[in-house]
């Protein structure tokens, strides 16, 4: 039997052993904490060196080839660096190869003083000419438009049926009543142009186109005006037409010319159309006189002016042309020399 002393000593040995182990564990932990606290700075200052694995394999010529992972990583890094450098260096070359149309160049914005103002035309802008406070568009014959409109209005307001006639190749005029105003001054007779016989022949031809329901009158003038039969519009009957040759043949050409007085006499008859046949000799009509005659003629009567002369026309904007334009009529020039060839 084991005595009680041995049992008691065993009970005391086991706790002492365990206590010794615990003390050593505590000491080791304390030492490790102290080491970390004092040596942390020295560890961080050490150079970190990569650790790699070197592989070797035998080749056919009994030489060994070594593969170092660290060297491969370094080569990879160098390759990446080179590729990034190439990419950066290639950017200027790409820009250099771009076409000039795609490269933005520096440009200066215009100053506010250089910008065009609204309502102000520049030298490159087609300007509009103003006549009687109305804008006139370039390229449009405004006078022709007005003349056509006036002719339409006169035809609509004409009393009775209308027809179209023209003398000496002029543009045809539309109306139902006509006055033939013939200059018989000395310059138009045998001592001058000698066109009175031509005027008589042309007038006989034109009157054939008028019907009895149309009306007409023939007025010859120098410083005074003389009417066919009586001072009124006559029906275009055959009997009245037959009076014309004898009437013109009996009137000699002499004296001065009074264009304005003769025109006012013709306008007093209120015809649709007046044909004025003259050489346009002195005295000419002033702009004020033309304006006054146009007011008397408007809106019913248009005045068509036929001028006789020798050689080419010298002035296309003479008073006869302006009078025709002002009243919605037409202007024509007859070269006597060319006509008689």
Task: Explain what this protein looks like in three dimensions.
It is a single chain. The longest helix has 42 residues, at 4-45. The strands form four sheets. Strands 7, 8, 9, 10, 11, 12 and 13 form a seven-stranded mixed sheet that branches. Strands 1-2 form a two-stranded antiparallel ribbon. It has helices at 4-45, 69-97, 142-157, 196-207, 238-249, 259-267, 287-297, 319-326, 336-339; strands spanning 54-58, 64-68, 129-131, 134-136, 163-165, 173-175, 177-183, 215-221, 225-227, 234-235, 273-278, 302-309, 331-335. α8 (319-326) links the parallel β12 and β13. The chain is rod-shaped and about 180 Å long. Mean pLDDT is 75; it is low at 40-46, 92-96 and 117-136. The chain is α/β, with parallel strands linked by helices and 341 residues long. α4 packs antiparallel against α5, α6 (259-267) packs parallel to α7 and α7 runs parallel beside α8 (319-326). It has a domain at 175-339: von Willebrand factor, type A domain (Rossmann fold). It is built from nine helices and 13 strands.
For this entry, give a set of tags.
13 strands; 341 residues; alpha/beta; 9 helices; rod-shaped; Rossmann fold; seven-stranded mixed β-sheet
Structural class: alpha/beta
Measured by DSSP, the beta-strand proportion falls in 15-25%
Q: What is the third-level CATH name, the topology of the domain at 175-339?
A: Rossmann fold
Span between termini: 184 Å
For the secondary structure, the number of strands is 13
Instruction: Count every helix, treating DSSP H or I runs of 4 or more residues as helices.
Output: 9
| CATH A-level architecture of the domain at 175-339 | 3-Layer(aba) Sandwich
Q: Determine the fraction of residues in helical runs and give it as a percent range.
A: 40-55%
Order of helices and strands: HEEHEEHEEEHEEEHHEHEHEH
CATH homologous superfamily of the domain at 175-339 - what is it?
von Willebrand factor, type A domain
Stretches where pLDDT is under 50 for at least 5 consecutive residues are 40-46, 92-96, 117-136
Largest sheet: 7 strands, mixed
The backbone outline, from C-alpha atoms, is rod-shaped
Rg computed from alpha carbons, rounded to a whole number of angstroms: 60 Å
CATH class of the domain at 175-339: Alpha Beta
Mean pLDDT: 75
